[in-house]
Amino acid sequence: MFSVKNLSPKQIAFFTALVLAIPESILVYIAEKSWVWAVGSFLIIFTGSYFLIFFMLERFIYRKIKLIYKFINKTKATRREETFYKYVLPQKGIDEVREDVEAWAEANEQELELLRKNEQFRKEFLQNLSHEFKTPVFAIQGYVDTLLGGALGNPEVNRKFLEKTAKNVDRLTHLLNDLDEISRLERGELVLNRENFIIQDLVRDVFESFAVKADVMGIQCLIKKGCEAPLSVYADKEKIRQVLNNLVGNSIKYGKINGVITSSMYNTDGRHILIEITDDGIGIGEKHLPRLFERFYRTEEGRSIDVSGSGLGLAICKHIIEAHGQTIHVRSTAGLGTTVGFTLDTRRD
User: Fold this and answer.
1) Are 45 and 21 in contact (CB under 8 A)?
2) How confident is the model at residue 215, as a pLDDT?
3) Confidence check: pLDDT of 280 > 60
């Protein structure tokens, strides 16, 4: 369909030459009273104007537009592309070119915004990584300096300091192991050994492994009423155990004295099982929720409480669940508690 907004260079030259030639030929006819002179002047003016305008458009405008397209594409044109630039591109109207350039500018702005976010993430990651290493390293340095400064000869002091040093060495080892694991997960090197198992049995095993820590805080760990009926899932049992260990461990760490940790399981659509771990602890502010699964990200409240974790637990959980082709989510309200849920495939025969 013809559109004034999308005239090609030839069309622009044609209509402009026509506008110039018609009035001139009418004036010639009025002056000379001869159709021959009028038609002759029309043909001369139209032809001359057409080629002059087309040449100017092609030479000074569309050549620049072609350069813009080459710049947008960021490549050296092949022969095929040169043919495109020469024969196809000039058919585009100025408005179409403007739209293409605006779309290119918007895409570049989005790319720049992503780069800015990645740069900010990189800075925060390095800062958090530095913090996680500093704490145990400085503690070890302090204990060793104290021992070398004369406390080595005191049996009561040197054993106590060596035990604390060993604890911080274990923390460093745990941190390095977590970093190595998350690096492998991000490279897609996780191998899943899937099998059918009852998710309630695995949750009970995890609750039992945390029984001592839970008892110290008076926390009850239980499966929600109505969710006791066995549900079979198809997943890597040990990897899911790792996920549950992290979630239950966090619930105890950030839970309240004499609180409750509840696990619930639901068959959502016949193909997936939803597993949720809920506590009534300190909760998490809404602004922090989108970043909880980032490496080393912690809220200020969490950082003040957690002095032993690597800060990579939730990030590892996310990678494990996503490796299963599933999703993990968190719901929380500050002061009321937190629920972390994830899905798994149902049993496969």
Assistant:
1) yes
2) 93
3) yes
**pLDDT tens across 11-62, in order?**
777 888 888 888 888 887 788 778 888 888 888 888 888 888 777 766 666 6
- Structure tokens that stand for 131 in this block: 């913090």
Higher pLDDT, 58 or 164: 164
264 and 229 in a single domain? The answer is yes
Phi then psi for 159, rounded to 5 degrees? -65, -45
Range(s) of the domain holding residue 132: 121-186
Please give the single-letter amino acid code of residue 245: N
| pLDDT reported for residue 140 | 85
Whether residues 222 and 264 fall in one domain: yes
CB burial of residue 162 (10 Å; 0-12, 13-18, 19+): middle
Pair 326, 297 in one domain:
yes
Distance (Å) of CA 87 to CA 9, 193, 303: 12, 58, 64
Same domain, 40 and 8: yes
- 113 has pLDDT over 90: no
On whether the CB atoms of residues 63 and 85 are closer than 8 A, the answer is no
Which of 77, 92, 107 marks a domain boundary?
Answer: 92
How many angstroms separate the first and last alpha carbons of the chain? 59
- 69 closest CA partner among 110, 99, 114: 99
- HSE of 173 in the Cβ direction (CA atoms, 13 Å)? 6
228 and 306 both lie in a single domain: yes
Please state whether the predicted TM-score (pTM) of the whole model is above 0.90: no
Give the residue, 326 or 88, on which the prediction is more confident.
326
**Domains contained in the chain, number:** 3
Interaxial angle between packed helices 199-209 and 237-253, expressed in degrees from 0 to 180 and rounded to the nearest 10? 50
Q: Is residue 115 part of a domain?
A: no
The tokens for 149 are 């400064």
Q: End of a domain among 71, 92, 113? A: 92
pLDDT at 308: 56
User: Does residue 99 form part of some domain?
Assistant: no
Same domain, yes or no: 177 and 69: no
The answer to whether 349 and 329 have CB atoms below 8 angstroms apart is no
Distance of alpha carbon 10 from alpha carbon 250, whole angstroms: 71
Whether residue 18 is contained in a domain is answered as: yes
100 assigned to some structural domain: no
